[in-house]
């Protein structure tokens, strides 16, 4: 049936400008189709980008006949020659915009049913629920898939920086015997005849592993049974976690967090210009080191600037976070700011209290463009103190035996940090909802399908 | 209290031979202590290895006094000078065996309680349950931690090879609306007011993502509610998954699997000589490409060699796998063998049947040193055929809507493969139980603690 010679090697659309005048074999999805008089124009999408195909019945009657059948998202193979576009029709927005493919043969690889919306448009003007109901389709849109190219860079950069610094990558379980961070926001699992839970973080295991490899990192799934729907929370998210022993001071942890985050941003700047352009965003510039400030002082500044009096609050709310980021930008020329010394009661039981002021902890949040990017701090490494805190926080030590072993048998001063991959992806791109930064977001209303649509 | 100057920069034990004659500041755990007359010898362990400390009261009375308190697994900082060892006492087995540290100051960072067993011994002669009951301690043993250094290399090599070939790394959920692969071996999760499950594999999501990025990989947790305790299964494991579209033939998938696995083994050979030595294992050598053989033919060969007649069985059992690996080694000079064309009924619903013989599939297992390393194959990319199979396998299409969308709207021929990280770690090192290759193994008897010890 087909006239396309399968023995020829497929060329990616991005490679076509370098093959000017040559015959090429391309394969991909039809992004758009436009009929102009006796010519059919197709935009072909593959993993490298998009190129324009021209089907002219004067070049190939057979190809033209076939092209008449074609609809958006059909998967095709085409053979044709790479031609320079007339100057007036050059598309500077497109990597392949100086050429087009004069098609000689077309083979249909896979047909598509009628689409629920136009995926070929430059922007998908659809509500998020519609995008998510049709996730496998909407992800095909270049402006949607670009989000996950950037996400890949962020994760790989995190690993690269830590690997270069002698950190060991570890793989730790997500099925746990008890709620990691305490609290009720945990998913129970029917585990054979027992009850288990989904880990709220890889925290305890990464701490244990500092007593083996000193410096460790992991990219782990974390689960939070958030009882509400917000634009900042997911029920399952990807956590980038680092932990290290033999710290000289707790401030060292902030230095590491700063180093890792700056490298992540620089790697996105280097590798994802094309994707960033789709969003029209400018990445933060770091000309100075990131300022550090106690939480109480931050609340004081916010009060001065906005008259919003949260000075007795134990934490910053989202509006406070935005305000203090704004302050850092305006007053310190820094798009980021470290907020330190959160109250002991607002932090998990393993957080090291400040010896000078034990109502507060040696902990920090790194606030980014407009919200929290990183959370971290020094941990309690004294066995008896940790045991005491587990009890004080209302937990049972017998549920923490494997964890406590590490401290019972000698643990150096240690600390670490964690960040949510989807959250920083969202913040870098200025997305309005964290769900856009998760391939298949989970929340209380949805696992792939909306529950309301199933029940 | 302490005389150790914290302003000096810590040196790793491995760096000491290059600092001969110099003052150094070291930190780590006491692996062993030996008292010889008026001298105390300590082996100090840090993330880079081990070095011998000598505490001589003639050098420092203060240090000697402090050293008398020291016990195994105490965390200490020491200051001392690097001395050449007398020729007779050089330890060639140790990277730092040509030197020892003449200690001037000691600071105790963290004390350890009495150990349940001697962690300083060259080999831990303990039963696996004891090792796992004391996991946070037993992991400190160099021969135990070495397993996870090799595991790190395997995972990082998998990523590196695929990244170089234009694969995109993806992060997909583990909370799923239905049993991925069918069957009963799935863990239910109480998900708000609904029921969810833990993914048996990232299979469906990686397939969906081939319609976005064509070539994708993910390192994902997978969960199997195995109703029995074997030496080869874990309830939670790490799955290395790759998937790619626009395959030219299904054999191409085996070529990719071979390329990836060979790179992993070569990377371990290059980076983990020290760890391999502890196990005395020789890595497989690949002089020829890996032979390929249909399952039915393999069972015929096994029958000929052993008189064990499994020729009508739908699968190879563990003894068959060992035997056919032996055959491949003896007859083809290959430590690995691809077994292809498993029966359609033994493979998941999405497996592409062989058009020439639809009772069998275009699927393969790559059998390694002694068991299955990789499983893979071509997938059904035709929407109607896939829909038909979902029903034929007794599943409800409405549970697979997001998945089916990809096929409804155009999917190229595609396939992929997966391997269990713990299983290949086990097989490379010849470990007798897969639990040894998981930092914190989960099975029906244990999540950290043995259930029998808690109930």
Describe this structure as you would to a colleague:
2 copies of one chain form a homodimer. Chain A is an alpha+beta fold. The first copy, chain A, has 2 domains: 13-110, Nucleic acid-binding proteins (OB fold (Dihydrolipoamide Acetyltransferase, E2P), Beta Barrel); 132-454, Bira Bifunctional Protein, Domain 2 (BirA Bifunctional Protein, domain 2), CATH 3.30.930.10. Helix content of chain A is 31%, strand content 27%. Chain A is built from 13 helices and 21 strands. Chain A has helices at 61-69, 128-133, 135-138, 142-164, 203-213, 251-271, 273-279, 295-306, 318-332, 383-392, 401-408, 421-429, 451-454; strands at 23-36, 39-46, 49-55, 75-84, 99-110, 168-169, 175-176, 188-191, 194-198, 215-223, 236-245, 292-294, 337-340, 353-354, 357-361, 363-367, 372-378, 414-420, 442-443, 446-447, 449-450. In chain A, strand 19 and strand 20 form a beta hairpin. In chain A, helix 5 runs parallel beside helix 11 and helix 10 (383-392) runs antiparallel to helix 11 (401-408). The interface between A and B is large, with 90 and 91 residues.
CATH superfamily of the largest domain in chain A: Bira Bifunctional Protein, Domain 2
Largest interface: A-B, 90 and 91 residues
Under the CATH scheme, which architecture of the largest domain in chain A would be assigned? Answer: 2-Layer Sandwich
Distance between the first and last residues' Cα of chain A: 46 Å
Considering DSSP H and I runs of 4 or more, what fraction of the residues of chain A is helical?
25-40%
Give the DSSP E fraction of chain A (strand runs of 2 or more residues): 25-35%
Query: Structural class of the secondary elements of chain A?
Result: alpha+beta
* Coarse morphology of chain A: elongated
Main sheet summary of chain A: 8 strands, mixed
Overall pLDDT level of chain A = 94
CATH C-level name of the largest domain in chain A: Alpha Beta
Number of helices of chain A: 13
Radius of gyration of chain A: 27 Å
DSSP E strands of chain A, number: 21
């Amino acid at each position: 049936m087909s006239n396309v010679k399968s023995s020829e090697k497929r060329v990616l659309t991005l490679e076509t400008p370098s093959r000017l005048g040559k015959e090429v074999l391309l394969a991909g999805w039809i992004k758009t189709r436009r009929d102009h008089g006796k010519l059919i124009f197709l935009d072909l999408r593959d993993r490298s980008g998009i190129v324009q195909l021209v089907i002219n019945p004067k070049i190939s009657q057979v190809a033209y006949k076939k092209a008449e059948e074609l609809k958006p998202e059909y998967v095709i193979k085409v053979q044709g020659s790479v031609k320079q576009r007339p100057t007036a029709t050059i598309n500077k927005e497109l990597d392949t915009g100086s050429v087009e493919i004069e098609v000689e043969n077309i083979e249909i690889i896979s047909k598509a049913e009628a689409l629920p919306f136009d995926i070929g448009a430059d922007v998908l003007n659809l509500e998020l629920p519609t995008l998510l109901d049709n996730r496998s389709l909407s992800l095909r849109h270049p402006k949607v898939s670009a989000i996950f190219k950037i996400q890949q860079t962020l994760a790989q950069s995190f690993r690269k920086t830590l690997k270069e610094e002698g950190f060991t990558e570890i793989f730790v379980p997500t099925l746990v015997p008890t709620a990691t961070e305490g609290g009720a926001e945990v998913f129970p699992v029917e585990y054979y005849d027992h009850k288990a839970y989904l880990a709220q973080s890889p925290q305890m295991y990464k701490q244990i592993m500092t007593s083996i490899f000193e410096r460790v990192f992991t990219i782990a799934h974390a689960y939070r049974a958030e009882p509400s729907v917000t634009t900042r929370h997911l029920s399952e998210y990807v956590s980038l976690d680092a932990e290290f022993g033999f710290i000289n001071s707790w401030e060292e942890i902030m230095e590491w967090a700063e180093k890792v985050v700056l490298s992540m941003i620089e790697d996105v700047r280097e590798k994802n210009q094309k994707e960033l352009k789709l969003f029209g965003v400018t990445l933060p510039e770091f000309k100075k080191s990131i300022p550090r400030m106690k939480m109480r002082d931050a609340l004081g500044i916010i009060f001065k600037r906005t008259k919003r009096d949260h000075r007795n609050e134990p934490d910053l709310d989202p509006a406070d976070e935005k305000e203090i980021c704004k302050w850092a930008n305006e007053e310190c020329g820094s798009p980021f700011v470290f907020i330190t010394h959160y109250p002991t009661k607002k932090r998990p039981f393993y957080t090291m209290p400040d010896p000078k002021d034990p109502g507060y902890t040696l902990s920090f949040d790194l606030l980014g463009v407009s919200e929290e990017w990183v959370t971290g701090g020094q941990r309690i490494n004294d066995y008896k103190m940790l045991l005491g805190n587990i009890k004080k926080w209302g937990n049972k030590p017998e549920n923490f035996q494997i964890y406590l072993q590490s401290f019972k048998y000698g643990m150096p001063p240690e600390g670490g940090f964690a960040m949510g991959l989807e959250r920083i992806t969202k913040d870098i791109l200025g997305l309005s909802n964290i769900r856009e930064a998760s391939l298949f977001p989970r929340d209380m209303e949805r696992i792939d399908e909306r529950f309301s649509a199933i029940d």
